[in-house]
């Protein structure tokens, strides 16, 4: 008797579970480093993802179904990221995962989603994430190599071929350093000096003194705040006049605030968010950029940056895939891969079976800091 | 050309070293009074910078008023730290105390993060940003502030420990706390004093360095460790030996980064630390029985 009741209960429960899945919201998982050292990425990403999902839901969802975002904070920790990815897939039964925020976490999560066959749209930049192409893994953040190319292209135009590089000794910096060295020969650039600094260093004047005494015609510094601001200040102190390039890692107002007067005249490749208003009207991304900037400002009272933009792109790409007919993990993946010429925040996305990064070098604009603001370099 | 570069390395190194020295003296004052290595010292450096910004931004105080406020609040934080974390311990063993100071540092850092967020902030330089040239090498006005204020604090420190009753009492405690309490010195109060003084000094170091290095809730970790190295090189003396230790560390770091490889900059500090601990545990200048305080 008891057995029968239990069986009945089980049947009822699973039935209830089934029907709920059909009518309930589409669950989308998200892993962001909201706290910890990579919080400057995770926080705007979480805010943006939630904001976009709310916007979609307030307009009636996708094909009548609402989206539900399940966000977990990885604290920038790879072990946590893997645990939480499993939790999203097995407990929350999400159809796709957005994030994680950093390359290290993304690499750790990839084996999980490949095994469980759930699409992952990473918001981190590392080239290894989608090279070689993995069936279930996409990404929205621009490859470092695109940013490097943008700088080298500009140097070629200016006929400056000897550069000194100064990179931070963390994941972002070493990936940049690798790309800077790899792309140099192809672009006719010689790296005359290869210096590094620690992520917590507070004085880089020794490295810059060495660079000042070298043959270099330009300096390329690769890091995220606050290091590059110290580099800019030290360079100004040492009276260095050769052009100083920064990476897209500092393309936020915070950097201008930190570096103060020393930021004047610095150039950097950046996603187009910060110069959205300056873009020509012919730019296909302009509409998306302006709408993102204004709704972020309305919701959070600070300016949206391109880190949040990665999450915007991820949600919107997912939305497109679901609109085109994706309803479960496998069909969403197939539809994601068919995305063509989608104007996002990071650039124009076109995924294919051989390219899951989806961006070209037009994803970066070269900007200069002038009078504490951004201007486009022609 | 090379001379010019070495001069620049040395000047940069000296100004960094002055900061290490100031933090290092904070370590040794507490060590001498209590036998504790206070690993929360770096957090007071952070508090100095962050509190100054807090007073300037939120209460709109000018710099000259914000600095004393920040130092005073940090000193109170040091006082509370001693009263709430160190004093209640019944049977203090060195390992317990060390773990408590590490715990305290994590707590302070966490509170600062919750209060002020995770962003890095810049503090305006005290007097302009125009570089000053010294024979082809350049320094900033802020570097001069750092050197002057460090010298001033060390001078006051010296006067306090050798020419005031309280200072002499603290020295007495460091030589022999049992005998001191027998002649009527309140040893617990001297321990409290040592925390207050060293947290105020740490805070001052954090303030004068913030315009150059910027400040954030987690800036104390590395600066604290460098200060600790300086104190070890100086043999945990709270006098000129630790100052020399800080300056030597700063210059070697800068020369090492410039002439050998910048990748090893931090390694240099820790290699020196290990060498000193292995070869001359009494410090670079110490006789076997070093003068402390």
From the coordinates shown, what is the CATH architecture of chain B?
Orthogonal Bundle
How far the N terminus sits from the C terminus of chain A, by CA atoms, comes to 81 Å
Number of discrete domains of chain A: 2
Using the 3D structure, state the CATH architecture of the largest domain in chain A.
Answer: 3-Layer(aba) Sandwich
Globular, elongated, flat, extended or rod-shaped: what is the shape of chain B? globular
Estimated structural class of chain B: mainly alpha
Query: In which order are the strands of the major sheet of chain A placed?
Result: 2-1-3-4-5
The third-level CATH topology of chain B is: ABC transporter involved in vitamin B12 uptake, BtuC
The geometry of chain A reads as: globular
Helix/strand order of chain B: HHHHEEHHHHHHH
What pattern of helices and strands is seen along the backbone of chain A? HEHEHEHEEHEHEHEHEHEHHHEEEE
Topology:
The complex is a heterodimer of chains A (378) and B (293).
Chain A: H1 2-23, E1 26-32, H2 39-58, E2 67-73, H3 78-90, E3 96-98, H4 103-116, E4 120-122, E5 137-139, H5 144-157, E6 162-168, H6 171-184, E7 190-197, H7 205-212, E8 218-222, H8 227-237, E9 244-245, H9 253-259, E10 267-270, H10 286-300, H11 306-323, H12 329-337, E11 342-343, E12 348-349, E13 365-370, E14 373-376
Parallel strand pairs in A: 1-2, 1-3, 3-4, 4-5, 6-7, 6-8, 8-9
Antiparallel strand pairs in A: 10-13, 11-12, 13-14
Chain B: H1 2-34, H2 41-58, H3 63-86, H4 94-116, E1 132-134, E2 137-139, H5 141-163, H6 165-175, H7 177-182, H8 187-213, H9 220-233, H10 240-260, H11 265-279
Antiparallel strand pairs in B: 1-2
Helix pairs in contact in B: 1-5, 1-8, 1-9, 1-10, 2-3, 2-4, 2-8, 2-9, 3-8, 5-6, 5-8, 6-8, 9-10, 9-11, 10-11
What labels describe this entry?
heterodimer; A: 378 residues; alpha/beta; Rossmann fold; 2 domains; five-stranded parallel beta sheet; four-stranded parallel beta sheet; 12 helices; 44% helix; globular; B: 293 residues; mainly alpha; ABC transporter involved in vitamin B12 uptake, BtuC; two-stranded antiparallel sheet; 11 helices; 2% strand
